[in-house]
Design a protein that fits this description.
Number of strands: 12
Shape: globular
Radius of gyration: 21 Å
Structural class: alpha/beta
Distance between the termini: 37 Å
Oligomer: single chain
Order of helices and strands: HEEHEEHHEHEHEHEHHEHEHEHHEHHH
Length: about 350
């Protein structure tokens, strides 16, 4: 947790934000938010009690204006998981991705979604902003001869509530083989879910896990990417994954994308919005499917391109301003109107 905290602090500082470290390393104590900052509004980007330190959970701030902005596109068919945890019900404003997600909040929340407002999903703004400039290069070869493929495995080696996406253990050795077999034609960026490493340490042990991650960092045509992924998406040619929010997010860059399957029917995992999005995916049920996809990427073969472009333009693109503008405007208007 402290490692992630430091990484976030350094990132915001680098971008010029007036950011305050919530942990005092010298004294080993956390900032008392109420006493030292006296906030008027608190934003949450994570609804899970246990992944938020109890000192900062919403139970301690019921008298303040609290806001939840989702960290990822809600895609499970279990609406209570995405819309009926205590934080979802208690926040003043719950900003949701689409009108479909507003319906899900009304169906799944004990508060019937009365605090839910459609603004669009914040995570895609840099992906669709034509003025955005790529800042980070994660690829070892900058020429265009080697296609750039992201492999992004999820952390759910075992189910977490209704979420059981991962098929990492089925593909982990095979993806290394693909990187070696097509070394002169592709680069692969290994982009694991932030929780995958710790989950693997329980399965494999720390030594094997570290060795696996280091291999991806050190192979001549691969990279290990564990931070921000905006620039990675924008500079890639394709992605293979079994992740959650990436399922919708990567479609915004409108490049070939494949979902690997762990055998659980998609209808058992995802809501109807996500199932519609998955019609624009290539699907892998065995390793041969993945290798065929890689070869198609190398050859520039993309049969779903036209269909996917229509879906992105007609369904995914924001219709009314950027999500951040919509959020700010709603807060300002709500406060002005008391």
């Amino acid at each position: 947790m402290l490692e992630s905290l430091q990484h976030c602090y350094d990132t915001f500082k680098k971008r010029g934000y007036n950011v305050i470290m919530s942990y005092n390393y010298k004294n080993g104590v956390y900032v008392d938010v109420r006493k030292e900052l006296a906030p008027d509004i608190i934003f949450y980007t994570n609804p899970y009690k246990g992944l938020i330190d109890d000192r900062y959970y919403i139970y301690r701030f019921r008298d303040l204006l609290t806001v939840y902005v989702t960290y990822g596109f809600g895609n499970t068919k279990d609406f209570s998981f995405n819309f009926n945890q205590p934080l979802h019900n208690l926040v003043w404003r719950n900003y949701v991705e689409t009108s479909k997600h507003l319906d899900y909040a009304r169906l799944g929340g004990n508060n019937n979604g009365r605090n839910a407002v459609v603004t669009g999903y914040l995570g895609i703004e840099d992906l669709i902003d034509t003025q955005y400039k790529v800042k980070n290069n994660y690829w070892k070869f900058l020429e265009n001869q080697r296609k750039r493929i992201i492999w992004a495995p999820h952390h759910t080696l075992e189910p977490v509530g209704p979420i059981h996406f991962s098929c990492f253990l089925d593909y982990c050795d095979f993806m290394v083989e693909m990187a070696k077999k097509y070394a002169d034609k592709i680069q692969i960026a290994f982009k694991p879910h932030p929780l995958l490493r710790s989950k693997l340490e329980h399965f494999w042990g720390e030594e094997k896990t570290n060795s696996y991650f280091e291999n991806w960092a050190n192979m001549p045509n691969t990279a290990l990417v564990e931070g921000d992924y905006t620039d990675l998406f924008l500079t890639s040619d394709a992605m293979i994954h079994d992740s959650g929010s990436f399922l919708i997010e990567y479609l915004y860059v409108n490049k070939p994308v494949m979902r690997t399957s762990n055998g659980i029917p998609l209808e058992d995992l995802f809501n109807d919005f996500t199932l519609d999005a998955l019609k624009n995916y290539y699907h892998a049920y065995k390793t041969d499917d993945v290798e065929e996809f890689i070869n198609n990427v190398i050859e520039g073969v993309d049969p779903l391109k036209e269909q996917r472009t229509r879906y992105v333009n007609d369904v995914l693109m924001p219709k009314k301003g950027l999500p951040s503008e919509n959020i700010l405007n709603d807060i300002i208007n709500s406060i002005d109107k008391n």
